[in-house]
């Protein structure tokens, strides 16, 4: 069945400003592009865009799809702006809990509070005796009350786990603030959720992502919900011919070899990705690994999640299976360790490694990245979330090569755009706006590090050709071109016209995956 798309502005994204009048789609592929009158004789049916603007399908290059669905189902603390408001929200949200019920909250961020307060476990105990786990926005730190700590066996005598930190008070007692690997001590006590729960969370996530105009996402979910088969089953329950969405699965290093040997997928909509490895933590929690101490806490340079030897060993395991790696690196020393491991074990032919976040870099590390087959997963919204407080963490001297998206592009590095949802909002409009303005929505200043602003074309490329190239799909996705997948995002207005605030105001008209309308304004499909 052929369908001719026309009647709007169709951006091919081949080059800045390049458009085509019509696109002829055969089943799930683009057959031809060109003039409407020339293509009309070949069409079985026509789809009139009615003045809307069409782009290659937008893809989020790094998120946690099940986690995003959970955030939509749970208490969201991410927009709370004071410690008192957070306390009131927790009291309200926990008042109906039974004593043995766990309470899990998502996304608190003390940097949004005037007093920068981080709650002590005793303060959480006053709110609820039920076990409580509150995930910081970065997901590299949690707060737990005394009930949760007791279930985890965390006491004054507990040792810090490798790659983690149990924060303690002046008397050496745990405060309930747990960083990186120490989080697992508590999170491992949370009763395992059912596959049915994971399926419901994922269904809510996919429905929402399609409504935002996203045709796919590169997602990390295989290491968080027990055995990998459980989240994988949820993906197969939700995505397929009945619900088209491009889910590229990063495989946690802890599950990687077993997945290589035993897992089956549901391609082309669910496909296996590289081994996911954490090299360090987050700037907000001061666990991102820096080459020099934190400006606002000279006692620490952060946390290495893996030793040099272990990081190299993990990369060698991926190479044994002919696979790439995707390494979480936020600090410059974390990035240096990742590059050491990648250079020691080069990626296989026709594969591309990924460095996720790459927020604090150095010029010498950029030169090394230029010499290897690597792509960078960037999160433009981190600029608007982290500034201005991040200046306190890093100091002015490190800012030149921090959050330096424009420099990275200008040095010829492949860059993709993602949200890291549920850490940030999944809405690609917010990411595009942040890349272009480097400020929060509707603020009027010139932007944080305005020299790093991207053009609107460069920003949209992060979510189209950039996301495609990151997974080696640049020859089939990310551009509206003959022979490419028929994945389209249709907005009610032009992202490249009008003032910058209009980027935030566009509405999704249709989301098209493999030639099929999976979301339509006013009603799904």
UniProtKB/TrEMBL annotation:
Which Pfam families does this one have? Amidohydro_3
SUPFAM superfamilies (UniProt xref)? Composite domain of metallo-dependent hydrolases (SSF51338), Metallo-dependent hydrolases (SSF51556)
What are the Amidohydrolase domain coordinates in residue numbering? 45-519
Q: Which domain of life is it from?
A: Bacteria
**PANTHER family according to UniProt:** IMIDAZOLONEPROPIONASE (PTHR22642), PROTEIN LONG AFTER FAR-RED 3 (PTHR22642:SF2)
Q: What is this protein called?
A: Amidohydrolase
